[in-house]
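LOG
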Amino acid sequence: MTPKRLAIYAGGAVAAVGVILLLVLLHGSGGDEDTGDVTPTATITAVPVRKEALQELANVYGVVQADPSGTATVAAPRPLIVLRVLVRPGQVVTAGEPLAEVANAPAAELAWRQAADAVKFAQADLDRVQRLYAQKLVASDQLDAARKTLADAQAALAAQHSQGADERRQTLSAPVPAIVTSVPASPGDHLAQDAPVVVLARQGAVTARLTLEPSAGRFEPGQVVTLRPVWGGPTISSHLTQVAHAADPTTKTVDAVAALGAGSPPIGSAVEADVVTGMHDALVVPRGSVVFDETGTHVFTISSGKAHRVFVKVGRDHGDDVEVEGPLTPGQPVAVEGAYELQDGMDVKVAGR
């Protein structure tokens, strides 16, 4: 082998050794790093479990109605014919506002004529008896009888007058500020005396009739009620004023009444209501802390920088919070934001700490 070839082989060997040494040095420089698996850490927010006295609520439905104690019926004061109806159901009317125009029916006209004629006849007869009495041609008892006949006829005519029979046409008006609940009469109807023309509900005399399930709790007058119109609108705070003591034989439900004041929903509209039937102590957590997955409903408590899965039973909602039952203690922190990213035993970092 020539000296030149030996020099070439020697240089290659030296280069290879250098590369090997470089690799060894590079590998050795990372020896201080952790080459094992890195434990994941989640950043979460946490709030303490709370123990609170909470209301026991029964959710029920009902309908707005005119309170029977505040209902007034404008009836026909005598036999009438309805000429015009001036209002509609649901309309608000003021005291004295016209409701309907009516006219005397033939029977009412006849009764008025007969009463007026009876007064004229009785007066003429009394004048005759008085002349005869002055001539001592009749006894005093006949004079007394004539006077009584006139008094009776005048009373009958006054009754006809009080019914408006002397007015062939008449306008019936609202006696008080009210809401028109129904109009049983129509133009052209012939009505008997005391037949309803317009039914009114005095303003402010409105209630909610609620349908209660006896199994939902114990219901008593005075219990607080929060009502919400089904089709939207502000909530109404009220209380039960009456609870029936007999269930409907078909539905097995019980009716109750809750007072409504001014600004109540329209009569006949549906309402939803929560009735406070009692109080109880319960553990409460934010709704966002409860995790629902294939393992079951649970929350994650936080202790010593780790998350611990605790299975719970979820109860009633209370706004942004929810009742839970499980092995939890008041003040124990539970994960809220980031709870769905946690696993049992995972390292956690509470935001802001």
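LOG (cont.) second protein
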Amino acid sequence: MFGTHDLWLFVVSGLLLNVTPGPDTLYIIGRSGMQGWRAGAIAALGIGAGTLVHILAASLGLSAILAASATAFAVVKMLGAAYLVYVGISLLRASRSRLPAVAGEEYVPASMRNVFLQGFLTNVLNPKVALFFLAFLPQFVAADAPSKPLALLFLGAIFDLNGTSWNLLVAWSTARLSGRLAGVGTFKKWFDRAVGSLFVFVGVKLALSANR
């Protein structure tokens, strides 16, 4: 279909990759735990929009430039790492203001616009996602495909749809669990801190990792 092959294998492989935790999942869990299902869903949609950028880049060959240029990869990697650390610090600061009795001030949730934008940038500024699509999608494009860019877009759309569906499930599950623990303020505060700390760790790890 659309110049692809082994579509069922692609779907299964994609689902397995989607359920593997990463920065995107951490961000959704953090937002869902702090602000509920709606924020988690918006975060998932932001990440889905970021994934579309990578899919378009892979289809148009832009990811090949990133893969071939060590300098371009290093620049994008450092930008992505810095942004992950920034998001982690933001979550840590938000956890301190969650409990007015502890922090002495009212908790101000992030706007849905900022939640979406942070999710979008968390995904877009991860160069390893770009390289993943460049390496993964072509494996399922037929050699005689009438239009390889169209085949890549088709596969990317399936991957993004399945990934967004999974992320929405993660957001719902996290919000539901968080709602049951709404009265356990200490637990939620430390949960937020744990997610924020993980973001900082992932950002530092990405910055210190090898370029390739």
